[in-house]
Specification:
- The chain is of the alpha+beta class.
- The protein has a single domain, classed as Macrophage Migration Inhibitory Factor, CATH 3.30.429.
- The protein contains three helices and four strands.
- The strands form two sheets. Strands 1-2 form a two-stranded parallel ribbon. A two-stranded antiparallel ribbon has the order 3-4.
- A hairpin with a 2-residue loop joins strand 3 and strand 4.
- The radius of gyration is 15 Å and the shape is elongated.
- The relative contact order is 0.25.
- Keywords: Isomerase.
- It comes from Sulfitobacter albidus.
- InterPro entries: 4-OT-like_dom, Tautomerase/MIF_sf.
Amino acid sequence: MPFVNIRIVKQVIEHDPEGIKAQVQASVTDALSHAAQIPQENVWVTFEEIDETDWFAGGQRVKEIRANS
């Protein structure tokens, strides 16, 4: 049984967290089910929402990176 854990910056999905998670999990479930030839019911997907102040890339907070984009 595949278990997929998706970590995402919560501010990226804050405008529609339930809708975005539903769409992402459906795509991931479909892809894994198809590739592994297993029933969709056997694919588990979870989300971890990480605050942009707690996520770093290249030594810089994601909050700062997003502000400069």
